[in-house]
Specification:
Number of helices of chain B: 14
Radius of gyration of chain B: 23 Å
CATH architecture of the largest domain in chain B: 3-Layer(aba) Sandwich
Helix content of chain A: 25-40%
Strand order of the largest sheet of chain B: 2-3-1-4-5-6-9-10-11
CATH class of chain A: Alpha Beta
Number of strands of chain A: 12
Number of domains of chain A: 1
Strand content of chain B: 15-25%
Low-confidence stretches of chain B: 443-454
Largest sheet of chain B: 9 strands, mixed
Mean pLDDT of chain B: 92
Low-confidence stretches of chain A: none
Largest sheet of chain A: 6 strands, mixed
Oligomer: heterodimer
Strand content of chain A: 25-35%
Structural class of chain B: alpha/beta
Mean pLDDT of chain A: 96
Shape of chain B: globular
Number of domains of chain B: 2
CATH class of the largest domain in chain B: Alpha Beta
Number of strands of chain B: 17
Distance between the termini of chain A: 42 Å
CATH architecture of chain A: 3-Layer(aba) Sandwich
CATH superfamily of the largest domain in chain B: Mur-like, catalytic domain
Shape of chain A: globular
Order of helices and strands of chain A: EHEEHHEEEEEEEEEHHHH
Helix content of chain B: 25-40%
Number of helices of chain A: 7
Radius of gyration of chain A: 17 Å
Strand order of the largest sheet of chain A: 2-1-3-4-12-11
Chain lengths: 243, 454
């Protein structure tokens, strides 16, 4: 089996260790015997969504986010089609804002988004930083993560995570992220697949099974990742474990 | 009268603080409460030099101060490790007469990059060195563009900027700056390379027109000789340039003429030394004299240390957690040394400033450089040992090369007895001293068999 991962704007949306997600997914797929190709694509390149099985976008500075959006918006229709067709998307940090209706910056200047989802992102005058712990209904264990952002989404109904701790979609929000078909988007930054081995395993399986529902999985090797997860939970969330 | 009282009280408090080795901010804070116009009352030295940026501030200010003092000048310097407004005031109080006049020809200030907008209006620097703006403490800083905005607010056209010509990011300060600018840089040399070794960089698109830049060579990360083919933005030939560099002999030559001995053999030391040389030259000091004073300085073991332990060469590379550039620099150093080696990576805590344990930055560092035959084992140590080990795995390092240890003590027997080659310890600063102590004591853990091999 062959799988192609597109790492979109790898050189612009790479603010908080985002490349870790692509590295981890590639390795897990390869451990399952899959032939993996990563396409590193950025502004000026042609995007061919029909060639991609999995699309990744990470967090960027506000300026780089604008640069990426300017390019990606010319593929508005193709992105929508790809999501509807069930192509996998993992979108972390402020990149989820690109897929909404619009982004309002600090000066209330409006930038049109891809319009795949109905929400609007608003840039605030302050930065929101915190550890995050969230629960997805398709996973057993909570998701560990980190948030570092200056914008919020207040009008998203289809959240992916229930917020246990952290900022969520906006301060004191109960839900965060978006999950629609095979589109997974979250404000969590950095290598969330690496830090959450259960999520990594889930994503790898879903991706493979979407190509071949009868695929026989080999045992996953995630000891280091699991030890890291368990240690972190013990250090920071003993009260959650005890519940 | 209140001004004089504030000065006397401030001086007294500073004197007490110095006695017990504390209080680098409080005397300033109390003095300004007693007399809120104290800053206006003070008559600062004629020449004020401020150094800011993500790293290198301390090295550059201390080098400038030392050379000025060796040359016979009286210098006021905020060397007590704190670089906020009240701390600068505390330093000034120590050298202040009752009429507000500061005893000294020069004021040299290390200024925290986030505090420039508060400190600069008070000290009104004539010369401003911005060493670099790198990925640094994201939970505190957000990101480099936000730090840039903060510093930009503090700069006006009366200031003479001193910048690294090899760093495209710093040019953002120059686009609308009408005051003087002096550049320093390093010419292409035997350590330069043409294929980028680092992935996650602050800026590789032209800061003017946003087209991807081409590089004729790199010294490190995005530092090198860059050019935008669209708008012709490119590296400016610096007035002060390292034309010859040799880490073997620790010698660098500036403008083909001025040779000096570097305080340590690492790229950022070259830049810090060069920045200091540039400032001192602009102040009118004799270049040959500057070289002589800098060359006499003792080896800076804070950033980089090298010694032999049980016949093995040990290199200790000091890094700042949450600052991928410092780690990348250490990795570049490792990459330049091809002998068989063992690597140690670890820290006591991620940050001493806050309780966050953000681990994202581990993936901003190009640990892929360690995927090399010369690396025998990688020892991951400390509370985040499994996170470090996982990072090594995804850097493509074979499982059998990755070992984990909860503490430095537990690691020592394995390190000393079961690993090969030179030892390169890539540590956060909080692990440097304990590591060195354990390396230099005999095997006090002889009966300790708690080492856990994966």
């Amino acid at each position: 089996m062959k799988i192609t991962i597109a790492h979109l704007y790898y050189d612009l949306l790479n603010l908080y260790g985002e490349s870790g997600n692509v590295k981890a997914l590639k390795r897990q797929l390869e451990d399952q015997g899959i032939d993996v190709t990563i396409k590193f694509v950025t502004v000026g390149d042609e995007l061919k969504f029909e060639d991609y099985d999995f699309v990744y976008l990470g967090m960027g500075t506000e300026e780089n986010q604008h640069l990426a959006l300017k390019h990606l918006i010319t593929y508005k229709k193709e992105v929508k089609n790809a999501i509807e067709k069930g192509i996998f998307f993992l979108v972390t940090g402020n990149s989820i804002e690109l897929f909404g209706k619009a982004i309002l910056d600090k000066n209330r200047k409006k930038r049109k988004g891809l319009g795949c989802f109905k929400y609007t992102a608003k840039e605030e005058n302050f930065r929101m930083v915190d550890e995050a712990l969230m629960q997805a209904d398709f996973l057993e264990k909570p998701i560990l993560g980190f948030q570092n952002q200056s914008s919020v989404i207040r009008d998203n109904q289809k959240t992916m995570f229930r917020v246990i701790k952290g900022i969520g979609a906006y301060p004191k929000s109960e839900g965060e992220g978006i999950h629609y078909r095979n589109f997974y988007g979250t404000y969590l930054i950095g290598p969330i697949l690496v830090r959450n081995p259960e999520f990594l395993k889930y994503m790898t399986k879903e991706l493979i099974l979407s190509k071949n529902p009868k695929f026989k999985m080999k045992k996953f090797k995630l000891e280091l990742e699991t030890n890291a997860y368990d240690n972190f939970m013990k250090m920071h969330y003993q009260h959650v474990i005890n519940k | 009268m209140r001004a004089k009282l504030a000065i006397i009280v401030g001086k007294l408090l500073k004197w007490c603080g110095d006695l017990i080795g504390r209080g680098s901010i409080t005397p300033g804070t109390i003095a300004i409460k007693l007399y809120p116009h104290l800053w206006e009352y003070l008559k600062l030295p004629k020449t004020v030099i401020a150094v800011t940026g993500s790293s290198g501030k301390g090295s550059v200010t201390s080098m400038i101060t030392k050379v000025l003092r060796d040359s016979g000048y009286q210098v006021v310097y905020n060397d007590k490790g704190s670089n906020l407004t009240d701390a600068v005031l505390t330093s000034l109080l120590g050298e202040c007469k009752l009429n507000g006049k500061i005893k000294g020809e020069y004021l040299v200030c290390e200024v925290d990059e986030r505090y420039t907008k508060y400190v600069f209006p008070k000290i009104k620097p004539n010369y401003v060195v911005i060493t670099n703006l790198t990925r640094d403490q994201p939970p505190r800083q957000g990101h480099f563009d936000l730090v840039f905005e903060e510093i930009k607010k503090a700069i006006d056209d009366s200031m003479h900027l001193i910048l690294n010509s090899d760093d495209p990011y710093l040019y953002k300060f120059t686009f609308d700056h009408k005051g003087p600018i002096t550049y320093y840089g390093i010419h292409k040399n035997q350590y330069s390379y043409t294929k980028s070794k680092f992935e996650n960089l602050n800026l590789i698109y032209c800061p003017k027109c946003h087209k991807k830049m081409t590089y004729h060579y790199y010294h490190f990360e995005n530092i090198g000789d860059f050019e935008c083919e669209k708008c012709h933005f490119k590296r400016i030939k610096p007035q002060y340039e390292v034309t010859k560099l040799d880490y073997q002999t620790s010698l660098m030559t500036i403008n083909h003429e001025y040779q000096l001995h570097m305080p340590s053999n690492i790229l950022y030391c070259v830049y810090n030394t060069l920045a200091s040389f540039t400032v001192l030259s602009l102040l009118g000091l004799e270049p040959k004299q500057i070289c002589e004073y800098i060359s006499k300085m003792s080896y800076n073991t804070k950033i980089y240390d090298e010694y032999t332990s049980n016949g093995r060469q040990v290199v200790v590379l000091n890094n700042k957690n949450e600052n991928s550039t410092t780690f990348n620099q250490s990795l570049l150093y490792v990459d330049q040394h091809k002998e068989p080696k063992t690597i140690v990576i670890g820290w006591k805590e991620i940050s001493r400033r806050y309780h966050y344990d953000d681990l994202s930055w581990l993936y901003d560092i190009d640990f892929e450089i360690l995927k090399d035959d010369s690396v025998d084992k990688i020892l991951c140590v400390g509370i985040h040992r499994f996170d470090i080990a996982t990072r090594m795995k995804y850097a493509g390092i074979e499982d059998k090369k990755i070992l984990v240890f909860e503490t430095l003590e537990e690691m020592m027997i394995t390190l000393k007895e079961k690993t090969k080659g030179s030892i390169y310890a890539i540590l956060n600063f909080d692990y440097v001293e304990p590591f060195n102590t354990l390396m230099n004591t005999g095997d006090k853990n002889e009966n300790n068999d708690r080492t856990s091999l994966l």
